[in-house]
Amino acid sequence: MNRLHAHSHRLLVIVGASGAGKDSVLKGWLASLPRGLAPHHARRTITRDAGDASEDHEAIDEAGFHAALEAGAFAFSWQAHGLHYGVRWRELEPLAQGRWVVMNGSRGHLPELRAAAPQAHVIEVVAPDDLRRARIGQRGREAAPQLQDRLVRSVPEPAPDLRIANDGDLSHAIAQFDRWWQQLTAPMPSP
């Protein structure tokens, strides 16, 4: 049996198209929670420059990524937008300790993730294409062809447990996430 099966009900996976604002919603939501009650935020390993401040990640080159992959260091790994992404096993250790873990995932990788962690909760952040285009452009990471590739990327429907519209005030998206979280973690009433 996969070692995530027994604990996957405490795994939250945030997905969404580029520019939907996943990182903003996730960071805002985590910051809004009382200290000590927030899930562990699993840090991703990415073949992206260390100087990119858009996400706290472990920067790695392709050779290092493939060596870590071959060594079995990643619980999850995928490729998107010309980059390799991974979540190391150590980032998921809090699950076995009874804690919740939240990670930024990939819509295209969800079938593999769900096979390994069948009870994981998927949260999809969505925004209109024009807003996504503006957000991606503001990041300044991609040239025009790569920006367009991010906008038109086609992936299977994620069938999320929660879909958050992040097309207005960020606080509304964070509040929607928090309401769902409070219901998910509320103690079950006694019979």
Rough outline: globular
Distance between the termini: 33 Å
Strand proportion:
15-25%
**In terms of per-residue confidence, which ranges show pLDDT below 50 for 5 or more consecutive residues?**
none
Our Rg estimate from Cα atoms comes to: 17 Å
Across the major sheet, the strand order is 2-7-1-8-9
Please outline the major beta sheet.
5 strands, parallel
Query: Number of helical segments?
Result: 7
Number of strands: 9
Structural class: alpha/beta
Percent of residues in helices comes to 25-40%
What's the mean pLDDT score?
87
N-to-C series of helices and strands: EHEEEHEEHEHEHHEH
Structure write-up:
It is a single chain. The chain has about 190 residues and is of the alpha/beta class. Helices cover about 35% and strands about 20% of the residues. The protein is built from 7 helices and 9 strands; from the N terminus they run E-H-E-E-E-H-E-E-H-E-H-E-H-H-E-H. It has helices spanning about 20-30, 60-70, 95, 110-115, 130-140, 145-150, 170-185; strands spanning about 10-15, 40, 45, 60, 75-80, 85-90, 100-105, 120-125, 160-165. The strands form 2 sheets. A 5-stranded parallel β-sheet has the order 2-7-1-8-9, covered by helices on one side. Strands 4-3-6-5 form a 4-stranded mixed β-sheet, covered by helices on one side. A hairpin with a 2-residue loop joins strand 5 (about 75-80) and strand 6. Helix 1 (about 20-30) crosses helix 7 (about 170-185) and helix 5 runs antiparallel to helix 6 (about 145-150). The two termini are about 35 Å apart.
